């Protein structure tokens, strides 16, 4: 176990600045912070009015989220209308083709149909296992 301070000298190359053998030392993660771009007065102003900034940005987030959801709804509605129009066009084409060839669809009442559901369940294998309680 040891300690080695590395400096990033290029994107994929580290330079060892300091090395020391240490007992029971596992890891240390550190990177220097860049200097702030704000003056001390600006930082005080931000800390003082933080709740106002927070409310402002939360409102912006809510508005953006609503706009995104509305755009998603509008896109779904547009796609649904496009699909419905395509189905209607194809249905008209099929009916026109059937009339042209003399095979019109018969008009069937909804009561002439019935729905049948069959559920088939098959047991492939059954095993029994006794579990002992280890703790008390």
From TrEMBL:
Keyword set, alphabetical order: Coiled coil, Cytoplasm, Initiation factor, Protein biosynthesis, RNA-binding, Signal
GO MF assignments: RNA binding; translation initiation factor activity; translation initiation factor binding
UniProt cross-references to InterPro entries, sorted A to Z: EIF3B
Coiled-coil annotated residue ranges, if any: 65-92
Signal peptide (from-to): 1-29
GO CC field: eukaryotic translation initiation factor 3 complex
Protein name listed in UniProt: Uncharacterized protein
């Amino acid at each position: 176990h040891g300690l080695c301070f590395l400096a990033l000298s290029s994107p994929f190359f580290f330079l060892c600045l300091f090395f020391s053998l240490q007992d029971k030392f596992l890891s240390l993660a550190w990177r220097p912070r860049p200097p702030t771009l704000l003056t001390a007065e600006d930082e005080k102003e931000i800390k003082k009015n933080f709740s106002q900034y927070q409310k402002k940005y939360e409102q912006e987030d809510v508005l953006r989220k609503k706009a995104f959801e509305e755009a998603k709804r509008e896109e779904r509605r547009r796609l649904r209308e496009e699909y419905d129009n395509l189905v209607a066009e194809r249905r008209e084409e099929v009916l026109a083709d059937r009339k042209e060839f003399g095979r019109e669809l018969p008009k069937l009442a909804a009561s002439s149909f019935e729905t049948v559901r069959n559920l088939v369940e098959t047991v492939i294998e059954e095993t029994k296992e006794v579990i002992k309680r280890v703790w008390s």
